[in-house]
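Please, structure for the following, as C-alpha cells.
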Amino acid sequence: MCELAIMFERGREGLRKDDASAVVWYSKAAEAGDALAMNNLGAMYQKGVGGLRKDDEIAVGWYRKAVEAGSSVGMNNLGVMYQKGVGGLRKDDEIAVGWYRKAAEAGSALAMSNLGVMYQNGAGGLPKDIDEARRWHKKAAALGFPCVEARSAGLLSLAVETAIDQAKFLRERIDARWPVDSA
C-alpha cells in the first residue's frame, strides 16, 4: 500500500502524480502499521497537500507514531520540527540534535547530514567541530545523500575561519605571556 502511495505522490510507474490518492493509500498503510507511511502521511500534513489542510501538529503526531514504529526518517523529521519549533513543539536545538543522532545511528543519511550541519554551526549544545561535521557529511555521502557535496563545499571556508580564530587566540596568549620588547 505504501509503495502505491509513493507512486501516486511521485507520479511513477505510469501513474500520474495524484497527492489525493497518495493520501488515501498512505492512510491505509499507516493504519496497518507501516512506519514509512506514517512518516509520509505526516509530511503530507506538514505540506498541506492531497486535500489535507496544512497542520504541523497532526504532522508531529504522525512523526511520533512513525518513531514508535522504528522509522529513522520519522526521527529525523521530529528533529526538524523541534529545530523549527513548530507543530506545538518548543524550539529546542538540543532535542533536535538528539533526534538527529538517533536517526543517524539508525542509518538515516539525511539525519547524518543534519547532524553534520549542527556540528558545523556549533548548535544544539554541540561544539563547533569541523572535523566531526565532515565525518557526518562523509557518512551521509557514502549512503548517496545528494546534498552533502553542496554542504561540504562550505566546510573549507568554515575550516579556514576556525583556523584563523585559533591562530588569533594563540597569538594573544603568546603575546600576553611573552610580550615583545619594542625598544
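The domain at 2-177 is CATH 1.25.40.10 (Serine Threonine Protein Phosphatase 5, Tetratricopeptide repeat). The chain has one domain: 2-177.
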